[in-house]
Structures are given as structure tokens and as C-alpha cells.
Design brief:
Structural class: mainly alpha
Shape: elongated
Radius of gyration: 39 Å
Largest sheet: none
Mean pLDDT: 78
Number of strands: 0
Distance between the termini: 73 Å
Length: about 150
């Protein structure tokens, strides 16, 4: 969703183009400034710390130091990581799926075919005597099966 709305939507897929991204950001800020009443809008640089933000919100300044976690380089690192993950995760899932299919196919091909016993083969070879129902063993054929221990 972020990719669709922000990176592709707002920045038209050109976020890495520094000049284009800055112009887009400045244009966004200009449009916001035109639409939001001044008494409800804080134009704020995070380098200013707690004071302007707390004054605008009519809150006391916290005793904790102002966090500096979203500097430019950290932000760019997170963007690159998100972009890499958006490629890596589908690639990984595809590789796992292909590996699972290959393992299943290898397992199937490694399973030996059913071994037929001598009796199975002899039963297939014994032809019924004339007039006997198909699949019956009579006469000399039955004696052969008995000798093989299959009767």
C-alpha cells in the first residue's frame, strides 16, 4: 500500500531522484498550507526539538531528550530495506514453492515401482483351459502353479 500510494502515487516512482522528491515535498507542503487554517497548522522542523511542538499543543516540554531517529540517512536506509523486502519476500516464497514441488517430484520418482512376486507373474502367464472361465487355473497350469508354491 505504501508503495502504491506514496512511492508510486505521490512521487511517481521517482523518490530516489532527490531533486524531484524535494520539489514534490515542497509542493505538498505549499498545498497543505493553502488549505489548513494557520491557527491549526504547525510548520515544524524536527531539528527545533520539543519547544515549538509543545507550545503548539499547549503541553509541557517533556524531561526526556527529543528523539533523533528519523534523520535523512536512517530514513533512506529504511526505504531501501522496504524496497529490497518487497522484492526478496516474493522471490523467497517462489523459491520455497519450487523447492517443495521439486522435492515432491523427486520423492515420487525415487519410490520404486511395486515389485511383483513370482506368483503374480505366473498367475498372469497361466492361461485358462479351454472352456474354463477367464482367470481360472485348471489342468496343467494349476499343477505348474502348485509346484511354484503359488496355488
Amino acid at each position: 500500500m505504501i508503495d502504491t500510494v506514496v512511492w508510486q502515487g505521490t512521487f511517481n516512482g521517482r523518490f530516489e531522484d532527490r531533486q524531484y522528491a524535494i520539489r514534490t515535498f515542497q509542493e505538498w507542503n505549499r498545498r497543505v498550507g493553502e488549505r489548513i487554517p494557520a491557527d491549526r497548522l504547525l510548520v515544524y522542523e524536527v531539528t527545533e526539538g520539543w519547544a515549538p511542538l509543545c507550545r503548539f499543543l499547549d503541553k509541557p516540554i517533556p524531561a526526556t531528550p527529543f528523539p533523533h531517529l528519523n534523520d535523512g540517512e536512517s530514513f533512506r536506509r529504511r526505504v531501501r530495506r522496504m524496497q529490497a523486502l518487497s522484492i526478496a519476500v516474493p522471490a523467497f516464497l517462489t523459491a520455497v514453492s519450487v523447492a517443495a514441488i521439486a522435492a515432491t517430484a523427486a520423492k515420487r520418482s525415487a519410490t520404486p515401482p511395486r515389485q511383483h512376486s513370482t506368483c503374480d507373474l505366473q498367475a498372469d502367464l497361466i492361461a485358462p483351459t479351454a472352456g474354463a472361465p477367464a482367470g481360472s487355473s485348471t489342468g496343467d497350469h494349476a499343477a505348474t502353479a502348485e509346484k511354484a508354491g503359488c496355488a
